[in-house]
Amino acid sequence: MRVLVTGGSGKLGRATIKDLLENGHDVINADTVEPTDALCPFVKVDFEDMKATLEAITGYDWDHNRKTEAVVHLAAIPMPGRVPPADVFRINTMSTYNVFESCRLLGIKNVVWASSETLLGIPYTIKPDYFPADEEYEPRPETSYSLSKHLGEEMAKQYCRWDKDLKIVCLRFSNVMDESEYATFPDFENDPGSRRFNLWTYIDSRDGAQAIRKSLEWDGKGAEVFIIANEDGVMTTPNKTLIERFYPGVPFKREIGPNDTLLSIEKAKSVLGYKPEHGWRRYVSSMRY
Predict the structure, then answer these.
(1) Contact by Cβ (8 Å): 17, 5
(2) How many angstroms separate the Cα of 255 from the Cα of each of 137, 197, 238?
(3) pTM for this model (two decimals)
(4) How far is CA 3 from the centre of its chain?
(5) Of 2, 112, 158, 222, whose CB has the highest number of CB atoms within 10 Å?
């Protein structure tokens, strides 16, 4: 499958390109920033520019004989605070529209898009309704960033209403981490509150890439939303202790283990066959219990 990855030079994008190549796919990286290590052809694109977005996804300049068959849209301002709120909202919303609309115009039916865990109420200054949070949880965007992601999910629904053969998979990624960052995880025990903003969850970039590939390969239609996190959280302190301290009285929707993720990934596991393989504990030899 020929796949164009927007934002392929970023942390999740690099892992995604590597995973897709290793699994036999043909990949193009489209980004505003050149990659430090070029794993595949690269095209520089401003995704706020509809013409540039459409031409990049068309892809004729690098191969006149093959068309783009699928798009993975990761390019975005990745969090609130990087630029002023209005710029976060404008850039993320406009670029997502341009990618979705380009796919519609080109007849591309297979789209995977990076939504965000932030739709679930991050930074959780208000108590969650229940644990673990899942896809049935009412969206609660609290920033211009999460609002842009919420509107992206709504756009996906409408595009799929227009075209019943279109598939747009919206992946609500947790905080993306690389293996090189895991050595610092035990230090979170010194300040558990520093990670409460996303319920002490994370996603290894390689497992995020796996979720993207399995979304591309999934034989579904319509707009679907999946939470993507690792099976465990970043803490060794048990969930019960954390919740009693920070969110007393919030009920559990189902039983979970002492260090299981508080963002449910059951839907992704059952529908996509997603199975995280890179939990941080396997990479850290000295853990504090």
Answers:
(1) yes
(2) 17, 22, 13
(3) 0.96
(4) 17
(5) 112
